[in-house]
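hey so i finally got around to running the thing on that chain from the lab meeting. sorry it took forever, my laptop kept dying and i had to restart like 3 times. anyway pasting the input first so we r on the same page abt which one it is
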Amino acid sequence: MTLIYHLKKGLLFFTGALLIPLAAGAQTTSQNYVRTRAPRLKVPTVTKLDALTPTKDSVQTTIEYDDGLGRSLQTVQQRASFGGNDVIQPFSYDGYDREDKRYLPYPSTSTSYGSYRSDALNSGAGVNAFYNPGGTATVDGKQSNGIVLTPYPFAQTGFEASPLGRVIEQGAAGTAWRIQGTAAEESSNHTQRSSVTTNDQAAFNTSNVTSNAGSHKVALYTARINADGSRSLLRTGNTATYVNGQLDIAINRDENWIPTDKCFGTTETFKDKEGQVVLKRTYNIKGSAAQMLSTYYVYDERNQLSFVLPPGASPDTSGVAISQAVLDSKCYQYRYDGRGRLTMKKVPGKGWDLMVYNKLDQVVGTQDSVQRMKAPQEWTVTKYDAFGRQVVTGIYQHPGSTAGTNNQAVVQALVAGVSTYWETPVTTGNGYTSAAWPLTVTTVLGVVYFDTYTGIPNFPTAYVVTGNTTHTAGLVTAAKTLVLNTTADYLWTVNYYDEEGKMVRAFKQHYLGGSSSLNQYNYDDVSTKYNFVQQPVKVTRTHYMKNAGGTAGTPILTSTDSLVYDHVGRKLKTLNTLKDGTNTAQAQVTVVNNIYNEIGQLKQKRLHSLNGTTFLQNVDYRYNARGWVTNVNNGALSNDPLTSTDANDQFGMDLKYDDAAIPQYNGNIGSAKTLTGALSGTTLPALTYNYKYDKLNRIVNAISTTAIPNDNFYNENFSYDVMGNMVRLNRYDNSNGVRTVIDSLSFGYVSGNKVDRIDDVVTGGTIGFFEAVKQAGEYTYDGNGNQLTDLNKGITQAYNILNLPQTVIKSGVSVAYIYDASGQKLRKLSTSGSITTITEYIGGIQYEYTGTTPVLSFIQTEEGRARKSGSVYKYEHDLKDHLGDTRITLTWNLSDATQMTPVISQRNDYYAFGYTIQSLANVTSPQNNYLYNHKELQTETGYYDYGARFYDPAVGRWTAVDPLVEDGQESTSPYGYVFDNPVRLTDPDGKAPCCGTVAQGWEEPAAYAAYSALTAATVTGAAYITIKIITHPQNSDGTPVMQRDENLRAPILQGASNKNKLPDEAIPNTVVTNKPGTTSKVYGPDGRVQKEHNKGHPEVHTPPNEKKDHVHDRMPNPNPGNLNKTKRMKGRPPKPNELQKDKAKAERRQEEQKQKSSGGGSNNSGGSSGGSSNSGGSSGGSSNSGGSSGGSSN
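ok and heres what got predicted. didnt touch it at all, straight out
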């Protein structure tokens, strides 16, 4: 819990507590400040905390200095830098009390730790001296300490010159992104700019690509609710438009935009008078034509979102109605019941999804179009307990139903006819009653158990542990999950916790050997130890296989990770020990040792060491002023004091943005240069790509250069339709020194975004896309939009209930995938002729074998894998680029006992959308298949498995609809890959585009996630089951979910500015918890915060001052003349630094009220006479702290 206390003149006051003197700290007492101290070890008393505060390894201290107006002047993270220096975050305001400049944080070498730095913003000192030593730099560069060199270490904000003071321009740190003042300079600013206007009737000119102002003419669509609950899309005369001035328009321009671009490169958001978004519009240039791309949001008379009309539906066209066929193939449709609950929805590429609810408004059944075509029809059902927790999921077969009929009303009536809405734990069956609808679940997919370990039917005896805490109320204690396409194969997970609710041990049953080998003694046992701030410091995983009699488990592998952190919780080291069976453990290996620069960026990653001192490979990282990675080592593999400080690098990469041949200021990558070491004695020249984009940030050209300038050996170019579906692709390769076109593709679409055929001008090729047929219907789909056939690859696929591949047949090779009901891939059986190769996936442990005896192949590590050879495991390390693509698989020369001689076993280069450049690929056995985005390549089909769906890099398309397509992606194709910007973005799990791994701070690689899932669960207590609920496509305020912003800036320093903050106002009488679950706020009847609770944060993206429950203390300015300036006008929401003040005042008022109601006269400490004196009150009235006489001194 958070302990708040107030400090004034050296005295400490706790609400309702005794007076405790506080030792003087290093903070500057002539300034208002709030001090937050987070102990990193157990501290029994505040006195002990005071004694430990100066010690950086014991206590994390953050001091926020405020002025008399409550504005933050400076935040000091005491000794928080990697080198143990204070980290200062200064703030700056203009004459209107607006923060006009946001400075980068900087470290101070002063040993007056925690003190206010009065020179923080002085020229030649503070932040300016740190980022521009000597003050001589006029452009950005690099410093030898790994810090960017820039004369502009701040992001400036430009405000509108009006009483509204709206932000009209937002700069960023760095020379290229500064706001320049003069009119001439303004025209070339590379900042984010915004303006507002209203709609009019000006039409769009499609032939003007040089000075096009765009169009603010808006079609007027409405939705009518019909008697049966359906919605009709209406537009009067098919020509109606909004009257001038009815809509407010916010126009946003990114950093690439310049005034001569006019409308191109802008995003326009149109809102009606109720604040509902009715249109989002962008503009593009394609060839000699201008394009206007509009996405309309249409609401019914109840203000419920009923239709989303993407650009592919041509919603701006006048005189032509949008047909039902177009609505069904290209648009989003939503229907609601009389209570405003979403009951039906249809997204492009899929049939209708149906939902039914109980009287508590909980979704209890969903049905997709594939389930509806079965006889009897199927529904995916969810059951809840009395606390609203999902406890049972399954498949319900509706008796007597026929294929294709909409039985939603019938099923909803069945739900309404059951008066019990939740299940109660019992000791029989699946552990819960069958009182809520449906009374009979045809196939139980998963069951989750909470609160206790007793009374759970069929609880595996092998997973019983004694001595664990029984205080597990609200926690997931166990779960069982069905193996799909089986009738009774369930896999158990059992979680054990400590007294603080941290998971300390977890058992997870695995499926090694398949159904015939299912046994409780096939399991993984994961135990976790934590430090005081709840970071895991030791994770031991023992992998068991049942013995011959199936009566006990035999240890096959024990993996122990020891994790080391620095004084603010940044991970420094991962040390791994592997033990094969009961053999002696191998020598401990330092898998990775992270080195950070003074502002918290990862500076160097050191890989593989036996002694912890010398390493097999060091990987250096450098950044620009925006925090974007510019170098991974460097593209010349040279020992360069600015980008790479060591020799023997095996992979290097240079990324250019604003400094590229065609500058990119908005985060797009202008060029990328890569170079690798020699493989099998062969050294390949550096490969450079220069990239071009259209006005929608979609890549259109990738121009390559190797040893021969502008050789264009590996060029690609692309074109797209208005939805981002690829319509043309040309690809080249180097064939014996000759530039050769390997693909010249054209894509045909007949049903919205579903590709129907792909034709290739190139014939007879052996690499790239291979066209086997040339006809309509080369690609077919099921009702959920899953690709069933690919006649060019000769593929036929079938899918399971999770829309994941179940069987794949290709040219005599058949592949069967086995998943559990949570979507975890368990097995792959690939059969060619009479030989079946089995791959088993067990949380990062992978088996590969033929026959009946499982053979362990490798275990994933944080930086690659450890392959098994006999009874010994040999580590391989993957060197990756900014997207997490594996470029080099690295091991060492076996003749070197120190393991310090690097040997490359595999290298890969990629085209823009992930297809491997065949002439540059080199592989030695065994092959590493975790390649593009570090996802597993399915060698049988050429697809990559991202988890939620498969991806075809040859054509840059997914094989299934995006499961989160409504989450701000309505204007793009549900089959398109990462908004057609694969050089900048990636997709971590196949659900939504995101920034590359580098831009997120180089978190653990995606391929390691399977292993991490077990250890992460020990921190989060998450169940090993996912229950699918179809959610409402609106924000909480009723507006549609909008396009997500892509923030590629790396976290420069974890700290106060990166907190997961909650709003100061919310719905009255509610409790809101932030996403990491670290902070919750209680909102009172007026919607204002009444109470705030902070608890320990998870490891990733955690402010160092909030790793553990922490303490706040407040020091007002001793100058009484400033105190009255802290008052705020009635009605203004509190600033973040005022929340604790408000809370403290409220608590004091409550205490005073209690004392009055009990007769007053309570003297808690030091009160000498009269009234109530909590501390130091000498006479009269109420004095909480230091009050001398009369009245109230707070």
